[in-house]
Amino acid sequence: MLSYKAYCLDLDGTVYKGSEPIPEAIKFVHYLQRNGIEPFFVTNNSSMTQLQLQEKLQKMDIQVEADHIMSSAIACANYIESTHSGKSVFVIGSNGLKDALDGKNILYTDEVAEVVVMGIDLQINYDKLATACLSIRAGAAFISTNKDHVFPSERGLVPGNGAFTKLVEHSTGVEPLFVGKPEPFMLELIQQKFGFKKEEMIMIGDNYQTDILTGIRMGIHTAHVNSGVNRTEEVQQEDAQPTYYLESLEEWIK
Amino acid sequence: MLSYKAYCLDLDGTVYKGSEPIPEAIKFVHYLQRNGIEPFFVTNNSSMTQLQLQEKLQKMDIQVEADHIMSSAIACANYIESTHSGKSVFVIGSNGLKDALDGKNILYTDEVAEVVVMGIDLQINYDKLATACLSIRAGAAFISTNKDHVFPSERGLVPGNGAFTKLVEHSTGVEPLFVGKPEPFMLELIQQKFGFKKEEMIMIGDNYQTDILTGIRMGIHTAHVNSGVNRTEEVQQEDAQPTYYLESLEEWIK
């Protein structure tokens, strides 16, 4: 299966599950690379830096250039650079988000600011949430990495960035702009940077509400792989259908 | 105006504004007391203990017995005692809530529990919110003091307990039981403890969505006083109307 130029793969649930690689996906990446195609990795994760994601993939025997890794943190930094250049920025988030902002030389403050950006932050506290709300009430742009209402941890399903974003939305009455999946913003960045046509791109993932909808909204082909959050039978109930269904990515190695 | 036996007064916006007493309300309380009527004070505030509220009123020249002060913290403790006796309890909240639970000899834990109770907590952190979500996902009862999405602070409008409760609701998909206004639970506790008939009770406050709706849902008379959150003209737009409109409580001193 070598019909596309840009294979955009989700990470968690598609390439790995937490710290465990999914062997069929690793084989598929190697197959693409043997045929001269460097896939893209597209993740809502904003807590890890591009380098940390690169090193995690390397441990799973996937060598990838940094600019083929697209996270919601990188997408946020791109968005702020292009739309809110020079404005003061207040960040709730982890190293991944701060590293991405640093990469674009975006300065951030601890005080009420003109732009609020939210990603998952395990060091969250009342004061940070108050500063975000006060900024937004004073008219700040409100940007969030993703809508994920939970994420899996060793303890079980714990609140994700989408839940903290909902708190701020509920308190202020202002809806955020989400840059992560299912918004197609990350795929648009890849398209713009590398000059792909839409028919040359495909989005591959396990999660209907994030991965598959992102591809559908982008207007590109999509493949659902039965290795993570949504089972094939669940996805078959949805109105808008993916282009392909795969039990595993090994099916596409010819 | 001495038509009722139980005058249930909201506090913030009705009797005082923050640390400033509202003189007409203080005079009205003295008028009731001179006529042998001890009013009740009904507040969504869960951060202050009954004693702290009593002392605050005392500084404003209002002497009141502790059992005439009903807060959402006290209501929570009553609810847990009557409905979830003996179950393990996880608390997000301030001294007011913990003090009310202590008053009912309800033991609480730092771990996943069978009952989760939420009130405003300026020491909130990720771990507390995760423990609340994990408990609720495992089937815990989910109780919250109130829906207040903001509260006024020196910095401006900052997130209230309702916003944090919304985070947990959004992450878990489970709706909480609110014991505070506009639910009539606090008025029911007063009714039960003192044996009032509904026609003997009146709820008085400045906030339509909390005070007036509480009285309407309880099926008792209500008075809106034009000293706080909602102006008279706003309240006049609502479908369900209060029994009385007052510019100030001085109008009722004869």
From TrEMBL, chains A, B:
GO terms of molecular function: metal ion binding; phosphatase activity
UniProt cofactor(s): Mg(2+)
Source organism phylogeny: Bacteria, Bacillati, Bacillota, Bacilli, Bacillales
Cofactor binding notes: Divalent metal ions. Mg(2+) is the most effective.
Protein's name according to its UniProt entry: 4-nitrophenyl phosphatase
Chain positions recorded as Mg(2+) binding sites: D10, D12, D206
Gene Ontology cellular component list: cytoplasm
List of catalytic residues: D10, D12
Species, as recorded: Psychrobacillus insolitus
